[in-house]
Amino acid sequence: MLSSLFRALRSARASSAAVKDGPPAPPEPPVDGAGLETLLAHAATRATDALAPALEARVAEFAAAFDASAVPAKEALLVYHVDLPAGETIGYRDIRIDPGKIDFAGILRHFVERMRRFCPGAVLYFATGADGRYDALGHDDVRIVRLPADARWPMFERALASAAFMRSRAFCAPTALLDSDAFPNRSLAELWELAFDVALTYRTQPGLMPVNEGVMFARPERPGAARRFFERVLATYNRLLEDEAVRAYYGDVRRWRGGQLALNAVVHGQRPYSPYRRDEVAGARVRYLPCDTFNYSFEYDEDVRNVDFSERTIVHLKGARKGALTILRAAMNAPTEAALRDRRFSLDRETPTDYEPPAPLANPRASLTAIADHYKTDKGNIKNHYTEHYARYLEPLRGQPVRLLEIGVASGASLKMWSRYLGPQASIVGVDVRPECAALCAGYPSISIRILDATQWQPDEWFDVVVDDGSHVSADIVRAFARLWPRLRSGGYYFIEDLGCTHSPTYPQVVAFKKPPEDFAREHFIGWLDEVLRSLDGRASDVELVHFYPQLAVLRKR
Amino acid sequence: MCGIGGVLQWGGAVEPPVLEALAASLGELQAHRGPDGHGVWSDGAGVALAHRRLSVIELSPLGAQPMSDPAGRFVLTYNGEIYNHRELRRDLEARGQSFRSRSDTEVLLAGWAHWGRAVLERIDGMFAFAIYDVRERALTLVRDRAGEKPLYYAHDGSRLLFSSELKPLVRQPGMRPALDPYGVFQYCALRYVPAPFTIFRGVSQVEPGSTLTFARDGSVRRSAFFAFDRLPLETARPEELPHAVEDALIESIRRRLEASDVPVGAFLSSGIDSSLVCTLAATVLERPLQTFCAGFDAPEHDETGDAERIARHLGAEHRSYTLSTDDLLGVVRRFGECLDEPNGDRSCVPVYLLAREMRKAVTVAISGDGGDELFCGYGRYPHFSRLRRELAPGGARRTLEAYFDRALAVYGLGPAREAFPEEYPAWQERFLDLHMPVFMRAGLSDAQRLSVLDFNTYLPGAVLAKVDRMSMRHALEVRTPFFSPQVLALAASLAPTQCEQDGMLKPVLKSILSWHLPPELISAGKKGFGMPPQFFEANAALFRDLYAGAREVLAATRFFTEREHAFEILAREAGRNTNSLWAFTALGLWSESLGFPV
């Protein structure tokens, strides 16, 4: 399971799944290691404890905000995130990020899920801006701390927030300071058995700053110790802003890079980092823990088939790895190894072949996702992640004598999925224009396959569920709906998949069927949608609801 | 190879002649470490450094120590060998330095003057030294990566004393040596006292791979330049690793054989590590290698026959000794005098005897020490993995405790803890805590985790302390090819299957050996060099007497008079197994040898 997860993560990076609507950010380019090393050594000479009065006032202001949110807890997590102003990006010689392409809300929801699973009883202090954008995350165990932070300079403001947290009442429990995409992956209890005031994570790859600021730990038994440490980091950061060597190497480091640079400067004298070091920095006992366990970020090209994922304390989706979130999340719900090995889905240019899983699925009440992966359709974890949405509507129909129609048979894998999911009482009808599809699913008595064009079809039977996974051509979707919606029973569902094809500029070139160019126009779909929504408002139509998910629409008949 | 010592005094009434006498006394008490010369340097204002010399490189007085650099800023007293001193010298000459002698001491001094602490990362060697910065009035103590050379110190805020050996240190005026309950507890739990602690209160050891700087403002700064850990090496391809290890070992052996102006020999048992070191040494050396082996008068524990066959195959000039019961008992009776700090390792006595014989033929010998820790050779690793499956599951701390209690036990943690209940929480926080992260690490096998633990604890504390003290009693210098920086880095990068493969230990070293030796000469199992249990059984009456004597001596100490409960437990439990019996006896013999009450 784990190996397949990582293979999927790698492919996520390779495919456009890595970031919303576009190719993934390239891996961080190689950096001149000697130059970085020189910079770190220089920055180390600039370390200071002196907080400028203006900065001191801001720390106090931030600390008051933490005080107001403080609750007793046995364990705390601190995450800082403020969206960059719209349209702005992060660009330095060794990193490029376009935050507009990252689903931060999804990342944060996933973070909270993971925290609740692996750190039950913990409290998350979510430090964010004053705009209230993420207020909806708030909960008993998620304290939204609105800070008067400058959205343009996330890393500087985070260093400020970390220092402020350490002097606030909120710092009363062992605390993990985490990037929002550094997820707990196992309990932190054993980590808290170690003696330290501050624990940092380090790595040995050349060209990277050795100590990473995305995962840090602090213990409150001697609160002054952690406070002094984080104040030194902040004061050093502030001083480095004006440093000529830093400006020459990175430019303005208020946005990014400066926090990590300051952190490395402060502990530079402790190299080589090792778990066996227990020296004091700014009066704090600092431990160094290897990233491979405590701040695990897989390599883009890493062959991780032998990695035991369960031993990683924190899994960190650095950089473009963030796009792998959906896959990572799905992995928490057990994707199957076999399903990912050779997926079976719409291979319209090839002769479809039947696929039979080597062994039946053991669990009679297996989830739709598990069944999808078992038969290797692309509706589950393998690609599209539709099944969790389907199940939301169709779960009550399991075991019922319902009739389901699916447009687009391909290899027949999804028909088998529906049959296994809904049960032997259900009738599954597949329609496809390709004659060779007729021979598929021979061993499944409840599945029937007809060779016809759904946009020209006038069925005389009724259906409880219709799934349009046909040509995905804008005009075809509308034509099929016009013919099939009338044959849907009251209370039935009509699903339309792969809606991105209606606005993808490349889809007309890749589609296997010959279609007039005007059929691809988005206007067909939008015009139809407009009609549906107008009638919905007027309560005159038989459409009860329209739900949209990424790439998927659902309509229920009144 | 030598002994060093010195004193640094801050403030107060400094009487230079007193300090010089003190330093000289520290040197004098270590005369066995360096019979070829001695020296004392003093600034006449609070610092005196001493040196006892065993001449190995640059036999002339040009290599004498303590040594000052030409600018007069640094003064060095140094015990050790720098095997790559010729390369370092070339680097320094290219940077405009010139040299008076061929000695590695002068290279170290010039390197420190030029690169500062960073010179340590460039050194392939074993060393413990003190370097005094005249300008800054700061003294730095340094110890090598693995902890081959010892360095003890006592620092009371106004005066610092340091010495290669512990006994000379505590014998100085002003020292009021008292046993430390934390030290005694650790000795009972581990058979040695791990750095930075010692058996004496107020006396510490410099930790391997680290430096300690005592500044004139009275501050002390500890800093590490090395720690062994298992880390993947980005560039290494697994299938190439055995070849890379072979190359690195050959280079390491070549340096260790060449950096000497006196005869060099080699320890050879039938075990993998010494066989490999001798085999590769024989390929490097243009003359026959001199090899030495000692065995017991007990066939199942005797490795001499196998060693002779290997030596014959290598064309070595081999000498074999059978350690007679009389030999062993002779040393056992006065074992306390051989010990510097208590060491319950059962192979101390045999090593002492073998080193004595070897010194008659050679001044320097290479050994296979460290191979088990670096390449995962101890049988207790797979044994412990099996044992662990039977124990209740637990985290890192429980695993560590089980290891010291069951797999590497002396008294076992139960009795040790019962005897010293107040020391246990401190041990958890100071000792176990330090080793927990490696047991939380992802992607490592049990054997890899345990070997990191052993490298950082058992190796310097028991093995290397034994090798140094037992050989230096006879002024024999032992060099260990497994500790070159290149071999250390490659060993750190081993994958789990390269540490243990289908139950086979040390697969990498075995495959290298298989390229050089016929299969029948490659050892199947380890016999070890500890005095075998049969030896204890056959001489039960004598060991009972020794135990009774130890019991009497220890019962009379101030330490145990104040801790009758602890004494009763230790005395009672000493009868449970050979390890605790020998540890208790050794502690008694050592205590008796001190010549002052503790």
Summarize the structure.
The complex is a heterodimer of chains A (about 550) and B (about 600). In chain A, about 30% of the residues lie in helices and about 20% in strands.
Q: Beta-strand percentage of chain B? A: 15-25%
Largest sheet of chain A: 8 strands, mixed
How many strand units of chain B?
Answer: 19
**Which structural class matches the secondary elements of chain B?**
alpha+beta
Work out the radius of gyration of chain A: 27 Å
Helix content of chain B: 40-55%
Give structural notes.
The complex is a heterodimer of chains A (558) and B (598). Chain A is 32% helix and 18% strand. Chain A is an alpha/beta fold and 558 residues long. An 8-stranded mixed sheet of chain A has the order 5-4-1-6-9-8-11-10. Mean pLDDT of chain A is 86; it is low at 1-31 and 331-348. Chain B is an alpha+beta fold. In chain B, 45% of the residues lie in helices and 16% in strands. Chain B has 27 helices and 19 strands. Chain B has a 6-stranded antiparallel sheet. In chain B, α6 runs antiparallel to α16 (413-419), α8 packs across α22 and α12 crosses α19. Chain B is globular. The two termini of chain B are 31 Å apart. The chains are: A alpha/beta (558), B alpha+beta (598).
Element layout with pairings:
The complex is a heterodimer of chains A (558) and B (598).
Chain A: H1 2-14, H2 33-44, H3 53-69, E1 76-80, E2 90-92, E3 95-97, H4 104-118, E4 123-128, E5 142-146, H5 154-166, E6 175-178, E7 182-184, E8 198-202, E9 211-218, H6 223-240, H7 244-250, H8 258-266, E10 280-281, E11 284-290, H9 291-294, E12 314-316, H10 325-332, H11 337-341, H12 368-375, H13 387-394, E13 403-407, H14 413-422, E14 427-432, E15 447-451, E16 463-468, H15 474-484, E17 488-496, H16 507-510, H17 522-537, E18 543-549, E19 552-557
Parallel strand pairs in A: 1-4, 1-6, 4-5, 8-11, 13-14, 13-16, 14-15, 16-17
Antiparallel strand pairs in A: 2-3, 6-9, 7-12, 8-9, 10-11, 17-19, 18-19
Helix pairs in contact in A: 2-8, 3-5, 5-6, 6-8, 12-14, 15-17
Chain B: E1 2-9, H1 16-28, E2 37-42, E3 47-53, E4 67-68, E5 74-82, H2 85-94, H3 104-115, H4 119-122, E6 125-133, E7 138-143, E8 152-155, E9 159-163, H5 166-170, H6 181-190, E10 203-205, E11 210-214, E12 220-224, H7 241-258, E13 264-267, H8 272-284, E14 290-296, H9 304-314, E15 317-323, H10 325-333, H11 335-338, H12 348-358, E16 364-366, H13 371-375, H14 380-390, H15 396-407, H16 413-419, H17 424-440, H18 446-456, H19 458-472, E17 477-479, H20 485-492, H21 496-499, E18 500-501, E19 504-505, H22 507-514, H23 533-538, H24 540-555, H25 558-561, H26 564-573, H27 578-594
Parallel strand pairs in B: 13-14, 13-16, 14-15, 16-17
Antiparallel strand pairs in B: 1-3, 1-9, 2-3, 4-5, 5-6, 6-7, 7-11, 8-9, 8-10, 11-12, 18-19
Helix pairs in contact in B: 2-3, 6-16, 7-8, 7-20, 7-22, 8-9, 8-22, 10-12, 12-19, 14-15, 14-18, 15-17, 16-26, 18-19, 24-27
